From TrEMBL, chain A:
Lineage: Bacteria, Bacillati, Actinomycetota, Rubrobacteria, Rubrobacterales
Name assigned to this protein: NADH-ubiquinone oxidoreductase chain I
Keywords of this entry: 4Fe-4S, Cell membrane, Iron, Iron-sulfur, Membrane, Metal-binding, NAD, Oxidoreductase, Quinone, Repeat, Translocase, Ubiquinone
Stretches the record annotates as Disordered: 132-185
The enzyme's E.C. designation: 1.6.5.3
GO cellular component, one term: membrane
UniProt organism field: uncultured Rubrobacteraceae bacterium
Superkingdom assignment: Bacteria
Length: 185, 396
C-alpha cells in the first residue's frame, strides 16, 4: 500500500512539468487556425461558369440551394441555353457536406476558406448570386417520394441480372448475397 | 439486485410510481414518519452528457430508484433517412454519435454495400480502418477527461482536448471537416490521403504514445481521490452485463471478451493484430483502464496500417446512381461505445425503404436503472462516465 497522498503529489509533478511546455492554445480572433486545401468552408458560386444544370439543387440534402432557370443566349452562339438568372444559397440550412461541389460538372460551386458567419435574422444568411433575387424560404424540392410502381420495379429487377434467365421476378426482400448463392447452385 | 417489489413497480409504471414507501431503511420511516424524495436530474444539467432526464427517488443521499427518460434530442434520423438518396444519408449518420462519427459512417456504408455488388479496393479498406481508429482515440481520450471533470478534476480534460484538437487537425487535412467528416462513401472513401500525411500521422502517434503514460495514466490512475470515487462504484457482474445486452467498454470491463472487430471482422481488421482489452473488476475504475488499453491498441493498429498501406484506388465502381438491389442490408461495426449496427430495407429505388440504427448508447443506458439504486447521488456521474453515452446516439 503506497503512502496516502503519493498519487496526488505525483500528479502535481506532472502538471508542474506541463507549466514549462509550449502553449497549445491560440488567441482566436487575432490568430486564426490554419486551413487546408480540403477544408470545407462557406460555399460560393462562379456564375460565369454555371450552366444551370440544377444538379447541385437536386442533390442537396438540406434543400439549401434554389435556382431560377431561364433560357438565354449568354455566349452569343445564337442558341438559347439554360441560364441561372437567380441563385441563392441559404447558409442557415447548409451543413457543408460537399455533395453539391462533388456533383457539379463545371466546378463552378466550391468551398471557400471562410467559416465565420453572423447575422441578425435568418434571411440575411441567404446569399444571392444571380441577377434576380430568389426567395430562399420557398422549398426548391417539395418532399415527394417517388416510388417505382410495383410491376415496373419487378420487371426492372428481372431484366437486370441473371435472374431473368429463370424467368422469375426477383423475390421481395431477399438479401443479394443469398440470391447470388442460389444463382451459383 | 433489485427486490421483487421494486422490479414489479418498474414493470407496472416506472414514471408514475408513487414516491413514498420505499425507504432504504423502512424501520426508520416507521419511527419518524419519513418519506422518500422524488427529484428530477436534468434534462438540462451541466454534468449530464447531453440531454438526459433522470427521475430519482432519494432516501437521504441514497438513490432508491433511477429512471432515465430519453428523447429530448430526438431528431428522427431514421425517418429522414427514408426520404434521402443513399449517398445523402451519410452526412446524417455523422450526426448520430457526434463523438465518434467515423464509425457511424462506416456502419451505414457497410450496410449499403452488403446490398450492392461492389468491390472495395484494399487501400480504401485500410484508410477506413485507419481513420476509424483515429476517431476512436478522439472519442476515448475526451471521455476519460469528462469522467474526471465530473469528479472535480479539471486538468485531464485540458490534456484530453489538446490531444483531440491535434487529431482534429489531422482529420481536417484528410477529410475537410473537424467533426462531421463525410469521408467514408459507399464503395470506398472520398479521397486519398494528402501528400505527406502518413508521415505526419506517424509522428503524431509516436508523440501520443509518449504522452499517454504520464498525462493519462500516472496523473489519474494512482490518484487517491480518483480511486476513492471510482473503485467499486457501479460494480456489476458478468452475467448481469450479458443479460442486459451491453456492448463495448461497459461489457468488456466486466471481463467478457467481445469485440466486433475481433469476432466479426470487417474490412481491414481481418489483417490486423490486436488484443481485446478486458478487465475483471466491472466498476468505473475498470472502465477507465479499459479505455486506456483500447487507446493503446488503437495506436498499435494505426502503426500496423501505416507500415503496410496498400497502393491503388480508393473508390470502387458503384456506377453513377447508387441504387441497391431489393432486400435487407446489414452492417455492424465496433464504435467507441459498443456495437453499432445498421439495418436497411431496400425496395430497389434511390431512397431506402427503412433504415434502423442500433446505437450502443440506447442499450447501455438501461444500466442506469439497474445499478444506480443503492449508490449515493454523487456516484451517478462516475457511472455515467462508465457508460459514456452520447446524447445524439441514444436519441437518434
Amino acid at each position: 500500500m503506497p503512502q496516502l497522498g503519493q498519487g496526488i503529489l505525483k500528479g502535481m509533478g506532472i502538471t508542474l512539468r506541463h507549466l514549462f511546455d509550449r502553449k497549445v492554445t491560440r488567441q482566436y480572433p487575432e490568430y486564426k487556425k490554419e486551413t487546408f486545401e480540403r477544408s470545407r468552408g462557406m460555399l460560393t458560386v462562379d456564375m460565369d461558369r454555371c450552366i444551370a444544370c440544377l444538379q447541385c439543387m437536386r442533390i442537396c440534402p438540406d434543400h439549401c440551394i434554389s435556382i431560377e432557370q431561364t433560357k438565354r443566349d449568354a455566349d452569343g452562339s445564337g442558341k438559347a441555353k439554360p441560364y441561372a438568372i437567380g441563385f441563392v444559397i441559404d447558409d442557415s440550412r447548409c451543413m457543408y457536406c460537399s455533395l453539391c461541389v462533388e456533383v457539379c460538372p463545371v466546378n463552378c460551386i466550391y468551398h471557400t476558406e471562410e467559416f465565420e458567419v453572423q447575422a441578425y435574422n435568418r434571411l440575411e444568411l441567404a446569399r444571392q448570386f444571380g441577377e434576380r433575387p430568389v426567395d430562399p424560404t420557398i422549398d426548391p424540392k417539395p418532399a415527394v417520394k417517388k416510388k417505382k410502381p410495383a410491376g415496373k420495379a419487378a420487371a426492372a429487377g428481372a431484366g437486370k441480372g441473371a435472374k431473368a434467365a429463370d424467368g422469375e421476378a426477383a423475390p421481395k426482400r431477399t438479401p443479394r448475397r443469398a440470391a447470388k448463392k442460389d444463382d451459383a447452385a | 439486485m433489485l427486490s421483487e417489489e421494486r422490479s414489479k413497480d418498474i414493470e407496472t409504471d416506472a414514471l408514475s410510481a408513487p414516491a413514498a414507501g420505499r425507504l432504504a431503511n423502512p424501520d426508520v420511516r416507521d419511527e419518524f414518519g419519513l418519506e422518500t424524495l422524488d427529484m428530477s436530474m436534468g434534462p438540462q444539467h451541466p454534468a449530464m452528457h447531453g440531454l438526459l432526464r433522470l427521475i430519482l427517488e432519494l432516501d437521504g443521499e441514497t438513490v432508491v430508484r433511477c429512471d432515465p427518460v430519453m428523447g429530448y434530442l430526438h431528431r428522427s434520423k431514421e425517418k429522414i433517412s427514408e426520404n434521402r438518396m443513399y449517398p445523402a444519408v451519410i452526412p446524417i449518420t455523422d450526426r448520430i454519435d457526434y463523438m465518434n462519427n467515423m464509425a457511424m459512417e462506416y456502419g451505414y456504408c457497410l450496410a449499403v454495400e452488403s446490398l450492392m455488388d461492389v468491390e472495395i479496393p484494399p487501400r480504401a479498406d485500410a484508410i477506413r480502418a485507419l481513420m476509424n481508429e483515429f476517431s476512436r482515440i478522439m472519442s476515448h481520450i475526451p471521455s476519460i477527461g469528462f469522467l474526471l471533470l465530473e469528479l472535480g478534476a479539471f486538468t485531464p480534460i485540458l490534456y484530453a482536448f489538446r490531444e483531440r484538437e491535434r487529431i482534429q487537425t489531422i482529420m481536417e487535412a484528410v477529410t475537410g471537416a473537424r467533426m462531421m467528416f463525410h469521408y467514408i462513401r459507399i464503395g470506398g472513401v472520398k479521397a486519398d490521403l494528402p501528400e505527406g500525411m502518413p508521415e505526419e500521422m506517424w509522428k503524431y502517434i509516436e508523440g501520443l504514445e509518449e504522452r499517454l503514460e504520464p498525462d493519462f495514466v500516472d496523473l489519474i490512475a494512482g490518484n487517491e481521490i480518483f480511486v476513492a470515487r471510482t473503485r467499486g462504484v457501479g460494480k456489476m457482474t458478468q452475467e448481469k452485463a450479458v443479460e442486459m445486452g451491453l456492448t463495448g467498454v461497459p461489457l468488456r470491463c466486466t471481463g467478457v471478451e467481445f469485440d466486433v472487430r475481433k469476432h466479426y471482422p470487417y474490412g481491414w481488421y481481418k489483417n490486423l493484430d490486436f488484443d481485446v482489452v478486458t478487465d475483471e473488476a466491472g466498476d468505473v475504475e475498470a472502465s477507465y483502464r479499459c479505455r486506456i488499453g483500447e487507446v493503446k491498441q488503437s495506436i498499435r493498429m494505426i502503426k500496423q496500417i501505416l507500415e503496410n498501406l496498400p497502393e491503388g484506388e480508393v473508390m470502387g465502381d458503384t456506377g453513377r446512381r447508387i441504387r441497391p438491389d431489393e432486400g435487407d442490408g446489414f452492417g455492424r461495426v465496433e464504435s467507441a461505445r459498443g456495437e453499432y449496427a445498421v439495418h436497411i430495407v431496400s425496395d430497389g429505388t434511390d431512397t431506402p425503404y427503412r433504415v434502423h440504427y442500433r446505437t450502443p448508447c440506447t442499450v447501455n443506458m438501461q444500466l442506469l436503472q439497474e445499478i444506480v439504486p443503492g449508490h449515493y447521488l454523487p456516484d451517478i456521474m462516475p457511472i455515467m462516465g462508465l457508460i459514456d453515452p452520447v446524447s445524439g446516439a441514444w436519441d437518434k
